[in-house]
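Human: Here is a favour to ask of a fellow structure person. Comparing notes only helps if you start from a blank page. Give me a protein, with the fold worked out from its sequence. Please set it down just below, with no commentary around it:

Assistant:
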Amino acid sequence: MFAMIVLTFGIGMFAVKVRFASVKTGEVNAKYYKLMDGASVPELVTKTTRCFNNQFEIPVLFYTVCTLYIALGAEDRVGLVSAWLFVFFRYIHAFVHLTYNHILHRMSVFWVAFICVMVLWVNLLVQQV
């Protein structure tokens, strides 16, 4: 879970840096960030904001299932490998999103990560039945 938290903080700090830079260069009026509405913003501002927001969607399922694994004392290789694969593919997803942003690549990596978190949930359910 810590690796996912590092990813989230890293993207968040990068997004803040991009926002400050957009105001400093005059590309975006600081008032835009009050409601994030009304102005055209540089692509990098939008990408970093969306990538940061993505860290609070599917990863929430990951954090929840990992917490359940810990609380229930569930330990097995399938869970461990699935968890690390999920983290790996989320890093790849963020990289694609923040760099060249090819939709097919980003979507493919997203679905592989999604399947990893599904495997975590199903595996935990099977262990507890």
Observations:
- Helices lie at 2-24, 32-35, 43-54, 58-72, 77-98, 103-128.
- The chain is about 80% helix and 0% strand.
